[in-house]
Specification:
The protein is an alpha/beta fold. The protein is built from six helices and 13 strands.
Length: 209
């Protein structure tokens, strides 16, 4: 079974409070999302594999450790997922980047695919799917399904805020997936938005309505 990890570091929670605040302007919102993504990247890479190597310091020779195993691939769900990418790349500059475009049908709340572009070696990488909001779980489930269809076997999901309904939906469809979030909120409202949430992440990132 996949695990649910709440990244509750005090710095993350402090910044998340300002992200939620409706008074936070576009510039500050982007910067805060970027910073939280960087902090969350520490947690999501905590169990990354290492291998020992010998290194010579100015004083002596010692054993150090470097990252080994599969490289990382980042796959943001367009468009809001893009707001978290740069923050993660600060820690994982060698990660390759794919994109999955999904729009939510306002009537059915189901995801509609409009774009997908993945690295040629995507199946050789450990994939982190990125979306600030895990609401109904529809977009995350569809993105994960598409990646599995392409042959990806190691996938994690990274979100700022999740609703219990979204977590349950992903766990039901993809019980092998680990989910990393900064907060689990109360519920979804009748329009499928997370409560208390932060509004529409894409609109707040890009200044649209």
């Amino acid at each position: 079974m996949g695990k649910i990890v709440v990244c509750d570091h005090p710095l993350i929670q402090h910044k998340l409070t300002h992200i939620r605040d409706q008074r936070t302007n576009v510039q500050d919102f982007r910067a805060l999302v970027d910073e939280v993504a960087t902090l969350m990247a520490y947690e999501i890479t905590r169990d990354i594999k290492l291998e020992p190597i010998q290194v010579t310091t100015p004083v002596t020779t010692t054993t150090g450790y470097v990252i080994s195993g599969r490289m990382i691939g980042l796959v943001p769900i367009l468009r809001a997922g893009l707001g978290m990418v740069d923050g993660i790349l600060k820690l994982l500059p060698a990660a390759k980047l794919g994109h999955i475009g999904l729009a939510r049908d306002p009537e059915t709340l189901q995801p509609v695919i409009y774009y997908i572009k993945l690295p040629t070696d995507v199946t050789d990488r450990e994939i982190i799917v990125i979306d600030p909001m895990l609401a109904t779980g529809g977009s995350a489930n569809e993105a994960i399904r598409l990646l599995k269809e392409k042959g990806c076997s190691l996938i994690r999901l990274m979100c700022l805020i999740a609703a219990p309904e979204g977590i349950a939906a992903v766990a039901d469809k993809h019980p092998d997936i680990d989910i990393y979030v900064a907060a689990i909120d109360e519920k979804l409202n009748e329009h499928g938005y997370i409560v208390p949430g932060l509004g529409d992440a894409g609109d707040r990132l890009y200044g649209t309505d």
